[in-house]
Design a protein that fits this description.
heterodimer; A: 414 residues; alpha/beta; Rossmann fold; B: 148 residues; 2 domains; six-stranded mixed β-sheet; 6 strands; 45% helix; elongated
Chain lengths: 414, 148
């Protein structure tokens, strides 16, 4: 008999608003291909353009639960999701993306074989889930230092709360009354509702293990065969291209560090260019820097064909690091910050090099190593391609991680 | 609904603007698209616009706002596209005299901006009041919790 898996997502929108939406889509469609019956239960906040809005048809069944803006409170949301999921009678429930309402929904779903999916630092940061403040990763952790994090969240969110124009995070913060000391108890108690918890990297797992015995790392994925491979015939200008893609305009992504490394490199050599999918609003940068402007995902992927090195100089603890995997699938060596999911993805000396986040000199040295050695770049690129195909292709992620986990949980072996 | 021939796109600073400009161009290849931007706006972002209208930069005080509305009305747009759904931009879109008013959100979704000026102002005021009351409650609860 087919397994029935319910996905409960409190933030999902389609087209995707972020990596978590795309991840959920690929997991659900991948499980469908493996013969699993899936259904998505999503929260629709009336009047919001940010969550629960689905344009077009999704290839799996969806049950939207609508809530008027002024009726979004933790008890109502939790009860409605419990009722709707119970009616469908799934074998396993996966509670995927959500913010401050998620712990309440988790507790309401505790009677089901429940798995929790955490995409970033939602459990550890009451402010915005990024755990990044004043230009650096935040050392605090809501699970360990709730008082500090509660004050930080209230202070940071005050202008938006008072303005009355609330994004999803603030809407959840208010609905879940996350400023109250009791919210911390709800969060810690909610962890007990999960049979297993899925996170994206090993460092998140280490941080959660003191709070839950079964934390599994499942990385995100790519459709490796759809990513154009590096074309050795491209790049005829004679310059080596160091490429940075993704949401480069986000300061947490570390473009400033890459440009500082570029300055250091430019003092020694002129055989490179740094390309970034970014608009340089202050026109007139250094001659070795080419901001390529905004482009679609497909256009950005095509850039790998003409690039020699992929740079991922993130300053925050990237939960996964999709652009690194995409670059590897394209056959490029990756120079990345040694943080979060990037530390798991890039194998130093094998598929790329890791440098301390924010260290322009170390980044410059790593880039120089690769610029100097054509054979090393080719070897790392080929190894990266194999790693992306065997470990990060969606089909491999589903078969290697999700199917065994669902079997374990459905059979009560967690 | 008639096909819009004159479309205005009110700027935002960032990749969102270019994506919206591309989408509007793709949907209306024959329309005359005017990018409404502040002075010094990067030229590289205006590739798909037929015309560039430079308007006073923020902050938009009352005098600036009146000048902005006057300039927009002179353009006689069939459609004005704004890039965020905020009460301020809704009012501006309404005052622009454009027959249709649309919002193209940061996630790429398009939606018509319905409602008149009074409704928009009242809704905005309602949200503001709710926001201030909510914050007052949070502030009070946090202070009380610290004392206990």
């Amino acid at each position: 008999m087919k397994r029935r898996v319910a996905f409960v997502d409190l933030v999902f929108s389609w087209p995707p608003n972020g990596g978590a939406d795309a991840d959920l889509y690929h997991v659900m469609t991948g499980l469908q291909r493996e013969g699993v019956e899936v259904r998505l239960f999503l929260l629709r906040e009336e009047g919001s353009q940010e969550r629960g809005v689905v344009h077009g048809m999704l290839p799996f069944p969806v049950t939207p639960l609508s809530f008027p803006h002024n009726r979004l409170n933790a008890d109502t949301v939790a009860a409605r999701f419990r009722e709707a999921v119970a009616e469908w009678a799934p074998d396993v429930v996966l509670l995927t993306h959500g913010f401050c309402l998620k712990p309440h929904v988790a507790r309401a779903l505790a009677g089901f074989p429940l798995v929790g999916r955490y995409y970033a630092h939602e459990l550890m940061c009451a402010r915005d889930g990024f755990r990044y403040r004043a230009g650096a990763p935040c050392p605090n952790d809501f699970l360990r230092t709730p008082g500090v994090c509660r004050d930080c969240a209230a202070e940071s969110l005050q202008p938006e709360i008072a303005s009355g124009e609330w994004r999803t995070w603030v809407s959840d913060y208010v609905a879940a009354q996350a400023w109250r000391p009791r919210y911390h108890e709800t969060v810690t108690a909610s962890l007990g509702a999960f049979r297993e918890i899925i996170v994206s990297n090993r460092s998140l797992r280490e941080e959660l293990l003191p709070h839950h015995p079964a934390v599994t790392v499942i990385p995100g994925g790519v459709n490796a065969d759809t990513i154009p491979r590096k074309d050795p015939a491209r790049g005829g200008s004679g310059k080596r291209v160091i490429l940075m893609t993704g949401r480069v305009e986000d300061p947490r992504k570390g473009l400033g560090v890459l440009l500082a490394a570029g300055e250091l490199l430019a003092r020694k050599r002129d055989d490179f260019e740094i390309h970034a999918t970014h608009f340089d609003l202050a026109a007139g940068g250094p001659p070795w820097y080419r901001p390529l402007g905004w482009m679609t995902h497909a256009e950005a992927l095509a850039l790998y064909q003409g690039a020699d090195i992929s740079a991922v100089p993130s300053l925050w603890r990237e939960p996964f690091g999709l652009v690194a995997v995409e670059a590897m699938a394209a056959g490029l060596p990756v120079v990345a910050s040694d943080t979060g999911g990037l530390s798991d993805i890039v194998r130093p000396g094998e598929t790329g090099l890791l440098v301390p986040p924010g260290d322009a000199e170390a980044l410059e040295a790593a880039l120089e190593t690769l610029l100097d050695d054509d054979a090393l770049r080719a070897r790392m690129g080929a190894a990266g391609r194999i790693q992306a195909e065997t470990e990060h292709d969606w089909q491999a992620v589903i078969r290697r991680h999700y199917l065994p986990l669902l079997e374990r949980v459905a059979d009560g072996r967690s | 609904m008639d096909v819009p021939k004159r479309i205005g796109l009110f700027y935002s600073l960032g990749p969102h603007f270019v994506r919206a400009l591309r989408q509007v161009r793709a949907a209306h290849p024959h329309a005359r698209i005017t990018a409404i931007v502040p002075p010094g706006f990067p030229k590289a972002m205006l590739e798909h616009a037929d015309n560039v209208l430079t308007v006073p930069p923020p902050p938009h005080g009352l005098r600036n706002a009146a000048a902005l509305v006057r300039v927009l009305r002179e353009q006689r747009f069939d459609r004005l596209v704004v890039l965020f759904d905020s009460p301020r931009l809704r009012v501006l879109a309404r005052l622009s005299g454009a027959r249709e008013r649309w919002c193209c959100g940061p996630d790429g979704r398009h939606a018509a901006l319905e409602g008149g000026i009074l409704g928009t102002l009242l809704r905005g005021l309602g949200r503001k009041i709710r926001g201030h009351l909510t914050w007052a409650r949070i502030w009070l609860e946090i202070r009380l919790a610290r004392r206990l």
